[in-house]
Write a structure and sequence with these properties.
Elements lengths: L1 H4 L4 E9 H14 L3 E2 L14 H23 L19 H49 L2 H9 L15 E8 L3 H11 L5 E6 L4 E2 L6 E2 L1 E8 L2 H13 L3 E3 L5 H37 L2 H18 L3 E2 L5 E9 L3 H15 L6 E5 L16 H10 L10 H15 L3 H16 L1 H7 L4 H8 L1 H18 L31 H6 L31 H34 L3 H32 L11 H10 L14 H36 L4 E2 L2 E2 L6 H12 L11 H25 L1 H14 L8 H19 L1
Antiparallel strand pairs: 1-10, 1-11, 2-10, 3-7, 3-8, 4-7, 5-6, 9-10, 12-13
Helix pairs in contact: 2-9, 2-10, 3-4, 3-8, 3-9, 4-8, 6-7, 11-12, 12-16, 12-24, 13-16, 18-19, 18-23, 18-24, 19-21, 19-23, 21-23
Protein name: V-type proton ATPase subunit a
GO molecular function: ATPase binding; proton-transporting ATPase activity, rotational mechanism
Membrane topology: Multi-pass membrane protein
Amino acid sequence: MGELFRSEEMTLAQLFLQSEAAYCCVSELGEIGMVQFRDLNPDVNVFQRKFVNEVRRCEEMDRKLRFVEKEIKKANIPMVDTGENPEVPFPRDMIDLEATFEKLENELKEINTNQEALKKNFLELTELKHILRRTQQFFDEMEDPSVLDESNTLLDPNEPQRVAPLRLGFVAGVIGRERIPTFERMLWRVCRGNVFLKQAEIEDPLEDPITSDQVHKSVFIIFFQGDQLKNRVKKICEGFRATLYPCPETRQERKEMLAGVNARIEDLQMVLNQTEDHRQRVLQAAAKTVRVWFIKVRKMKAIYHTLNLCNIDVTQKCLIAEVWCPVSDMDSIQFALRRGTEKSGSTVPSILNRMQTKQPAPTFNKTNKFTSGFQNIVDAYGIGSYREINPAPYTIITFPFLFAVMFGDMGHGVLMTCAALYLVLRESRLMAQKNDNEMFSMVFAGRYIILLMGVFSVYTGIIYNDCFSKSLNVFGSGWSVRPMFTSRLGGGNWTFETLRGNKVLQLDPTVDGVFKGPYPIGIDPIWNIATNKLTFLNSFKMKMSIILGVIHMLFGVSLGLFNHLYFKKPLNIYLGFIPEIVFMASLFGYLAILIFYKWLSYDARISKDAPSLLIAFINMFLFNYNDPSNKPLYTGQMVIQSLLVIIALACVPCMLIVKTLVLRRQHLWRKNLGRENFGGIRVGNGPTEDEAQIIQHDQLSQHSEEEPEFNFGDVAVHQAIHTIEYCLGCISNTASYLRLWALSLAHARKSRPSPTPPHPFFQGLKHLLFLFQSSKVRG
């Protein structure tokens, strides 16, 4: 249970692995995930390590698998993911995997190349088919007698008509539909209007053989006279990436060519279908195992990368590794090494040797599916030092609760709880589906956080008496208006004329019977119809935010005491923790006490005379107690507040200067009063012989780190930064907790319907209903 509230106890261990068993042992250690390998070759280049060739082979296989995965996704074939965790293949199986991936990649590349060539040929034939059809329509229109008669009527009848034989050349092709206007303008300007362009759109989009995109194109035919214009036209077509096709001049030749093109298109379409079917079969077979292949290859790559971190002895028969591992999992690591040795068939067992070191150990916190989300939130802000208190267990309560303070709505909380409860109850089925949606994955990973936030939101919604921005009158309001109609002297205080003439009336709690008592739980529902509801909730939630913030900050500072006690640092307790807690309690803890005091001391009859806490807190720092507009809250307030301010100010130099001077004095004492050992006799607080051997061994060890040299300037600057940050943080963090109040009011305001006037139709309907009810009453 202790590991839940504090990071795991770690130890540095040395592994001696036989060369033939090292691969399987590292694989088993990776499966349990309880060790962190240290790099024992920091000065060796990555490309000069022993297993660099194996790592490259794994990267090449991973590249081939990514190519296969890309083709599978392009074909919209679902990849099977059963959640299986396959075992790592043996090193001898790498050749078979490489051969399988090489064959699959080459087959897919060959299919893609052939398919691209076939599609390109199919596109050309399709474009040629449309050209032959459209050009035939163009020539039919030009040979239409009605068109010729209309053109002859435009000529002068008195002028003798001469029909001179005129032979025009033409080119036909296909161009992108969006380039037609620019293409036409360019032809007109370059050829100076001496060409005739006729174009028609291709109704069905054509498939690009390279990108597989649908492209809209148009057929065009250009008539011109002379070779000079012909060269210009061809260059313009080339510049606009238009494809030119040969087009016969006679009708019969065009008809015969069209028949041949249609026959070739049918044959080509059949070949394309067969090629696509073969490609689909190959990809469907690969989609069943591509996930398993990825896991195997990446596990192999991770193993060889880890083996590159190890040292190899002179005989090349043993690998030496150093790992950080939890002390509580040493038995599991021993069993994993034993399984790896047996799996490899080696007869020499692997050795796990625990080492003594002064190096700082890494921080490791064990988590489960419930605590992992909260641990990730804590780690996002910073990971604690080794063996420090872990804030994650406390965050399980504080994080959802502070969210609920801002999101206090019973109705919305129920909806959130139901949604999170569905994710929790169906988590096994949802995890098996392997949803790739990033938003859903994020929500699913925080399902337990959302569940607790919803439950706490229901609780705070009950306290706020807020359900979809409406108050629930469950126990009956604690206010009554009936006594206001009867005066204490027997006369009428409120009459029906008073109700008709005033839109807003004030309930007087001093009249007997008006205020019957507090609402049993939460806020009285009568505040929902009060005009000063926002003013009341502002004061209530602002004070509540300050109280919660001060309690939360005091609790966080108190956790540091357990760290100081665990690490046996009394100096941090007396010159760190105590001044910090006194500083915060003297100022902001006192403010929270004033809030409770004001709530208990002032009732409805004297609430108008209550002084402002904000003004009183400001005057406390200014030592201003002669403010006539803000009377003291209690007797002796001036003495107590002045004493608290002086105590808080005295804590600052204690944290800033005294601790630094004491640290310097301790360093000088250790330096001048060194420990000595004469003739085997221990002098003063010197180490024993066994301790001296351990110290000597640590000093001679290659990886031992010396104690950092004491630098007074660095320590002073560090302590100054910490003190300033803490003092300013107390102020800024207290102000930051006011966002609980601000966001709570913002949520309540946004959840409430806007006060816009209703539609005229509904106003008229409401008026008709009122007239109907009035006539019914009169009748």
